[in-house]
C-alpha cells in the first residue's frame, strides 16, 4: 500500500542541511497496524505528514497505492488524500466556524456524497461517539477531549483505507483513550483498515503489529509484535 524509499526532510541553515528525517525506508502492507515511537524531535510527526501528503520530502521516493506521490502535482496528491486517507491530528484542526455535526460532515462534502446520505452518516458517527448532545455546538464550546473525539469521528466518517493518527489519545482520559484504541483495533481487524499511529504510549503502541522506533530522524529499530 505504501512504500517510502530513502526519504529525507531537511532545511537549509546557512550552508548546512538540518535534517528532520534522514534516509528512512519503510514499507507498509494493506491491513497493517504500525506504531511509530521515539523521543520528541525524532521526526515522528514529520514522517506522518509526509506519509499523509501534507508535507513533501526533500529527497527520496514515495509510493502510495502504486502511485508515485513524489511525481504528482498538488491537485493529484490532494485527490489521493481525500479518497484514501483519514487523519487524526494531535491539535484537532477543527474548523472554528462550523458546528460539531458540520465538522464531521466535511470529508463527505469533498467526496460528493448526497445530502440525505451525509446526514445519516453524521448521525451514526455522533451516536457512535456519544456526542449527539454536542452536535450544534462549536469547537470553542467543547473540552479538549470532546474536540479530539470530533476529530476522530471526522477522520473515520468517509471510511478511509488508511488512518494516520498523531497521538490520537493525547487529550483523552484513560477510559476514552482505551475506547479509541479498541475502535482502531476493530477497524483494523474487522474492516481491514490500515493504521499508522504516532504515539508516546507503550500501551497504545502495542495495539499495533509492528513498532518503528525513530531516533534523530532515522529508524533506530523495528519490532514485530
Automatic annotation (TrEMBL):
Q: Which InterPro entries match?
A: AAA+_ATPase (IPR003593), ABC_transporter-like_ATP-bd (IPR003439), ABC_transporter-like_CS (IPR017871), MacB-like_ATP-bd (IPR017911), P-loop_NTPase (IPR027417)
Q: Does the keyword ATP-binding apply?
A: yes
This protein's UniProt keywords = ATP-binding, Nucleotide-binding, Translocase, Transport
Q: Could you read off the lineage of the organism from its UniProt record?
A: Bacteria, Pseudomonadati, Bacteroidota, Sphingobacteriia, Sphingobacteriales
Family of the protein in this entry:
Belongs to the ABC transporter superfamily. Macrolide exporter (TC 3.A.1.122) family.
Q: Which GO-annotated molecular functions does the record name? A: ATP binding; ATP hydrolysis activity; transmembrane transporter activity
Database matches in PANTHER family = CELL DIVISION ATP-BINDING PROTEIN FTSE, LIPOPROTEIN-RELEASING SYSTEM ATP-BINDING PROTEIN LOLD
| Keyword flag Nucleotide-binding | yes
The entry's protein name is ABC transporter ATP-binding protein
Domain named ABC transporter: residues: 2-225
Q: Name one GO cellular component term.
A: membrane protein complex
Amino acid at each position: 500500500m505504501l512504500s517510502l524509499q530513502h526519504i529525507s526532510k531537511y532545511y537549509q541553515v546557512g550552508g548546512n542541511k538540518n535534517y528532520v528525517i534522514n534516509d528512512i525506508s519503510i514499507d507498509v502492507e494493506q491491513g497493517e497496524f504500525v506504531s511509530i515511537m521515539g523521543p520528541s524531535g525524532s521526526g515522528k510527526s514529520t514522517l506522518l505528514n509526509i506519509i499523509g501528503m501534507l508535507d513533501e520530502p526533500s529527497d527520496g521516493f514515495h509510493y502510495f497505492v502504486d502511485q508515485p506521490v513524489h511525481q504528482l502535482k498538488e491537485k493529484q496528491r490532494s485527490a489521493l488524500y481525500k479518497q484514501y486517507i483519514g487523519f487524526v491530528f494531535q491539535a484537532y484542526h477543527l474548523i472554528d466556524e462550523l458546528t460539531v455535526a458540520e465538522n464531521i460532515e466535511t470529508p463527505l462534502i469533498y467526496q460528493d456524497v448526497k445530502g440525505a446520505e451525509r446526514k445519516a452518516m453524521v448521525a451514526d458517527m455522533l451516536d457512535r461517539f456519544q456526542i449527539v448532545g454536542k452536535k450544534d455546538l462549536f469547537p470553542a464550546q467543547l473540552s479538549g477531549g470532546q474536540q479530539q473525539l470530533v476529530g476522530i469521528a471526522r477522520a473515520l466518517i468517509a471510511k478511509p483505507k488508511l488512518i494516520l493518527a498523531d497521538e490520537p489519545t493525547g487529550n483523552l482520559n484513560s477510559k476514552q483513550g482505551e475506547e479509541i484504541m479498541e475502535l482502531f483495533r476493530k477497524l483494523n481487524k474487522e474492516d481491514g483498515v490500515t493504521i499508522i499511529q504516532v504515539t508516546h504510549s507503550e500501551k497504545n503502541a502495542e495495539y499495533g503489529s509492528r513498532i518503528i522506533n525513530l531516533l534523530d530522524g532515522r529508524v533506530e529499530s523495528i519490532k514485530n509484535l
